[in-house]
# Entry
Amino acid sequence: MVSTYTVEGLIRDEKRQPVANLFVEAFDSDFGSSDDYLGNTFTNRQGLFKIKFKEKAFKGKYEILEKNPDVYLVISDDYGVVKKTEIKSRPRNGVFKFDVVIKDEKPFYDPYANSTQRMLTLFTAASDTANISQVNPNWTGALLLRSITSWLHYSDPRTGKIYGYPGPQVIARPKEFPNHDHTIPWRRTAKK
Amino acid sequence: MEEDCQEMIHGLEKIRDRREAYTMVNHDIVENADVCVIGSGAAGAIIASKLALEGKSVVLLEKGGYYDAEDMNQREIEMIPLLWKNGGATFTDNLRMLVVQGQCLGGSTVINDAVCFKTPQITREQWRQMGANISDEVWDGALDEVWTNINVSKVKDFELNENNKMLKRACEQKGYISSSNDRNCKDCMQCGFCHLGCHYETKQDMLVTYIRQAVRNSDANIRIYCNCSAERITYDEGVVDGVEGDFVDRATGSVKFKIRVNAKVVVVSAGAIASSQILLKNAIALDRAGKGLTFHPASFLLGRFDKPINAYDGIPMGFTCHQFGVTNGVRDGGFLIESIFLPILQFSLGIPSFFENHQLLMKDYIYYTMAGVMIRDDPTGTVTLTATGNPKVHYDPSDRVMKDFARGLRTLAEMWFDVGAREVIGGHRDILKLESKADIDKLIRAVEANPDGLTIASAHPQGGNRMGDDPATCVVDSNCQVHGFSNLFVCDASVFPNAVGVNPQVTVMALATMTANYINKNWKNFAKVALVSREGEACSLKQPMYCLSSRLETMFNREESRMPVETMINAAEGSPDAWSFDKKEMMIYNNSHWKGFFAVDQDIATMAVRYFGGFWKRFFIKDGKLAGVTHPYDAPVYADNVPEMMDHPRYGKVVYLKYTSPEFAMFYDLLKIVDKDTILGKAFFGVPPNGNQILVFSMSRKYNVDFMTETDHEKIYTEHGRAPELDKVLGRWTGRLVSDSAQTPHVQTFTYTKDNFGKLQMQYVFGGLLSGISRVTLTPEQMYMYDFTSWHDEVRTVTDDFMVGKWCSPPTKIPLDFGPSFLSVEDVPEGKRFCLRFTLKRRM
Ligand SMILES: Cc1cc2nc3c(=O)[nH]c(=O)nc-3n(C[C@H](O)[C@H](O)[C@H](O)COP(=O)(O)OP(=O)(O)OC[C@H]3O[C@@H](n4cnc5c(N)ncnc54)[C@H](O)[C@@H]3O)c2cc1C
# Structure
């Protein structure tokens, strides 16, 4: 049983480059009570960090059962937390080693999602640009109706096919299938 | 900025496999650059790219998102909201004419038809007569440079599809001068989806030419911010010092982050309409901007044939009839007839028919030829601002324009019949179909009798910020430099002195080329401009009142308390140096206490908390010892406390604020003094060091007028306010209500005009909804405004662009001691009254 512990490690980004100047905070995860704070530091230019702490930092009065601390790290940059690591409970000679890769874990954004909602947002941006007194109500009503019915009607590429229009020549989600075909199936005017 | 962020495109959306290096924006940004360019279309991309390649550091702001070829999936319903401004729903104010523009990285060049016309000789001469002194040599040099860089080539005969060929045949039969178009397309795939962005990357738009060239050149210093709408241009006495903007979430329209760019030169290239909007919003060239727009309006005719034309298949705009246009020496007005075709949704939206008729027309979609009559129109359009700052476009085509339409439609209808059309369709609401040449007269009569019934649309808006040497009538000089400003430029389609008469992109690009060359050549003059170090509304250690809670949290955790605890001591009550106001920077220095600020996204900072619930803390020496008191603005509570230094196991050196009175004894604050006027704090419940955190906040002795308290307002009103002068208040002002706790959003606009008798009147709009007219009276003390209610406004001028005012109830004898917090109580000779305080800014 050691009385001084060390948490150390290396933090790198997705390209496996070390990240400097990250704020690393070490905690001891306690079941049923609030977690003990073990210490903090910044990563250096090599992405390395080291935090030392003593047994009393995690062994409170009532935590007699606690043998080794359950260490996890909260890592933040200037703007907020970038990673909370998993818990490590087994030090080697009192050293907890962390090899952390910071990834952008946000899911990819679907640019095509909610196109109708986005249309409405865009519309409202233009909402007060009309002069109601100058607007011809009959014509405008008809225009609106035509817009809505057209939008609903032709949002499905199959509708156009009824009239002999083949529609889009590329797959709907090109980026999800990077090897998709780039030739145009419909008749192209050929080089003579 | 960090080194690794250079030469990058930044934006809010994480989309897989971008063609160019791309980083997500996840916090406010402060940038310093030589040049800030607003808008990345035909003009902005060229100026930014050329200057970056010439060694200037450039920041380019683009309102739209960054989508590359592999995002362009040819589906109208998915691409239009991504690439078109307002989802394609931009109309003139009478909803008569649709105006299409692009809103994405690359601007309208991403969605255009790639047709290239050099600026016609006649136009150049006319523009010179109008004071745009650009020699032919300069024109030719710039046009040639653009022509090469965007890889223009003539549409080859085999690339003309049946639609284009029909127009060609018709021209040949009539003996009209005509030709295949030049296009900026390399090995065009002829898919016909130009308006939805080019999936094959063959269209040589700004994305794949100028922008790519700059971002892939490791020597070029350019940062591009997408999803970023430039809102403010800050300046003083004709010298611009930077731009401020908002990162806006596309799905919800909400502002995610802020940007401030300090720059030596600012170029506005937001395109026609938007550039005028930006100038007007920022009170630049107020009397000239937004006038003289032209639209190159088009009206289309379909020819229906017996055999399929399949016009959708192939280059949409491949051929032009020059006979009646400026390209054939026509000096006044005139028109071009250009082939065009549209994918099915745009087609359906565009034909002026309804219900069963519409169905019948759509049924023949593949049997149509289509071409447009595009008029070189007169500069009769205007852009003004609505109450919410949107651009209102007004356009009445002149009689001459309608005559040209009549002539053009007659010509085109004849041409379609000549080459065998069974019917000719479109154009006018009152006569949808022409069954033979004999019906053409009916169409023309309809156009003459009911000009408003003619369907017209524009993809070529231009003008509004006229170029010319006369500073009294023009916005920019012949170098695109704004008259009266030493380092502000406007360069895009908005500077055209009148209609160019041909499809405008190459002319825009040539002007941009000249402007970049001019800035570059005269750089030594611009280099002298001192770069300011403003942070706008960006969150930072110096101005934590703009920060999100996650950022405040990490700032608190990471920062050290750098100042001795005595720094916290406030000025003695009533001492003269306790309060001052810097009119130039619009900053309040208030040392009578520390004004508290919550995080801008604090849960409890709902609308209500913006008006209620602020607090201040004051520190002083009592009996030789440091002591403090905390006071929430809206409650008669003064909680005594004692600040002590503490070495906290987690936060290091902090000031521990212990509340002494029993009712607050369960609370404590930890403070870090990060500079002499800024404190970061956390509030806890419990016993240190193990309390539970309730809140993270900041406190400051220095804050912008947007955060002023009612007391600040009163001081500015009485100590710095003067009676407004009639001519100086004319125009549009946007207002905020004053609240003690935080910044409130803009809630009202006041527009001052002279009525028919030369008397001042004011139109108010609250929350974009409630509007009305107030009578205005000027007295030697202040300005009064009265509407139909019994309350009235009193307003004073602080600077030319800033006024403070209050909306007050009639006096009453009823004792009013403590009102609802957003109303202050004032003593007047007749008794007491309630007042709602507000500020008015001329510039957004
Ligand atoms: C459907 C269509 C087809 C066309 N076809 C042709 C053609 O075949 N041939 C031709 O010559 N011309 C064509 N044009 C016109 C041509 O594309 C434009 O005239 C030209 O691109 C105008 O250039 P610009 O720089 O003035 O504006 P744009 O290219 O429109 O660029 C302006 C950019 O500024 C951005 N912006 C606006 N406000 C802000 C703000 N507040 N902050 C930040 N960014 C902002 C916009 O999002 C936009 O990206 C077509 C246009 C359209 C819409």
